[in-house]
Amino acid sequence: MTKTMTRVDVGIYRYTTKGGKTRFMASIKHREKYVRKLGFTTISMVRQWRVSRTGRIAENRLFPEIEKQRIEDERQRVEEEKRQAVTIKSYGETFIQAKEGSGLKFTTIIRYRSIFTTHLTPVWGNIPLTDITRAKVRE
Fold first, then answer.
1. What are the φ/ψ torsions at residue 118 (nearest 5 degrees)?
2. What per-residue string of b and e applies to 41-55 under the rule 16 or more CB within 10 Å gives b?
3. How far from the centroid of its chain's Cα atoms is residue 71's Cα?
4. What does DSSP say about strands 33-40 and 12-16: parallel, antiparallel, or unpaired?
5. Does the CA dihedral 125-128-130-132 come out positive or negative?
6. pLDDT (tens digit, 9 = 90+) per residue, 47-61?
7. Ranges under pLDDT 50 in the chain
8. Which fold has domain 83-138?
9. Helix, strand or coil for residue 4?
């Protein structure tokens, strides 16, 4: 048995369940797709839902379910970036190796390595480069 939808208002439809109860459905077009929600018992509930969702769309906050998933995806992406982030220690080692092959004097390389291991690595060694700001250096 298919549901016969009767349009009540813009984006609001009435239908009857198998048990004979009247229910309402809301429909909103968002990013070229229709988002539908069924099962409302009163038309005022449908209107309230549509108004709240329309407001969220205008604020670019999407729908709570989609927004929650988007926030979780973003959190996981940031964590993955931090795991793969270049730290001061790894960058410093790469920098010194590059300088060794650039023709600098041996004593200059030794001095760079000394400054790196004595001053930078103990304080900043495991911190990602992207987390270092001028304010943090001033501290």
1. -85, -45
2. eeeeebbebbeebee
3. 4
4. unpaired
5. negative
6. 998 888 877 776 666
7. 1
8. DNA polymerase; domain 1 (1.10.150)
9. coil
